[in-house]
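In this section we walk through a basic example: taking a raw amino acid sequence and producing a predicted 3D structure, encoded as discrete structure tokens. The instruction is simple. Fold the sequence below.
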Amino acid sequence: MPNGKQANLGGSGDAVDASGDEMDANASGGDSGPTGPSGTPPPIRPRPAPTGGPGAPTSLVAGVWQSITPTGLALGNWGIIEAALDPTHPTTIYLGGGDDGGVWKSENGGMNWQLLGTPGAPVVDRTTTYLYNVYAFEVDPFDSGHVYATCGVRGGTLGFWVSTDAGASWTMPQGFADIAATTATLDVTSMAVDPTNFNHVLIASHSAWKNMGNAGILESFDGGASWTPHAPVSSWPVGTAAIHFLYKDDPVTPIGDSQTWLVVTDGNGFWRTTNAGGSWLQVSTNAGVHGGVNMYRSKTGALYTGGFAYPQRSTDNGVTWTSANNGMPFAYYQAVHGDGNLLYATPACACSGVGGSHPYFVSAEDDGLNWKPYENGEQTFGNGPFTMEFDPINRIMYTVQWAAGVWALKVK
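The resulting token sequence is shown next.
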């Protein structure tokens, strides 16, 4: 069990400010609208609808997982953990190739890949063509050439990077370099982007901040040019914490806002803020997973994340959490994702200490509690997903599975 401040799953536990001092649980300011440094809510632009993109996979068989790992990508001991789809053209995929694997890109749904940049390319004036150990990507829904990346844990390009040419080159903003040198760290990992404002970015860290035993959350309102540090709760352990916006920008039934965030720690449970890190409430003592967890919001509005020892589920925008364990093996999970009809999950990296091969498990999106093996468990994997992404146009699920590589499923 986590050894930090306890809070019951009803969400009525102690709220704490960034220093770890107790606060009134109702002093969070409520779910007010998103604000920038000026306090003025930014205008909300509807995201453009995704299109088919320049090419679509034609060789996938419905209901069968197929490896689409790039030829020439060395998986090594840890393999790969990150992939992101262009939300407007989802056949365009960015893939983080692990410790020394660089950034790979496909424009036809993973049927062909290109390694971006030259391995070993130097960093000159905070700009390079080659990134090591990418932990997270985000692609601008209004500009496919505008991409963020975080590099963490190891490698020669630790930090937050921005591309304006679709990955051909990457620049570390001076503002990030400055705050990493004075307050935070270059070793950043988990990243979240405001669904209504691509310039509003949150990042978490793998290493501790300067003169601290752990790390908080960095927030930018200008695409990384400048940053505000939000100090951690004192009980948060050092190591990657997952950071997520608890915000669904539905024009009819919006949920949350840009100040409502979730942090999932490795050993100190789940923490929620409704005032952009001004105060935090521990909403679950269930453990996260070393390396972080991904989050998916189903068509019912329910949230799903990875966790130990089962996937975690919330039906009240992260205020309370329960284990989705009916039919699931006891293991580490880092990702749950859906296709609009089914949810998909399977245990993550066997290196996490719970080995064995497992099939993918599925549950109806309007259920989420009862799971069964996909296609009777005909395909099994020793390493499950760190990241999962879904192409809604071509109805393809993509998974990045550590040393097992990259897989695609044409859903039925």
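Looking at the output, two observations stand out. The mean pLDDT is 88. The two ends are 40 Å apart (CA to CA). In the next section we compare this with other chains.
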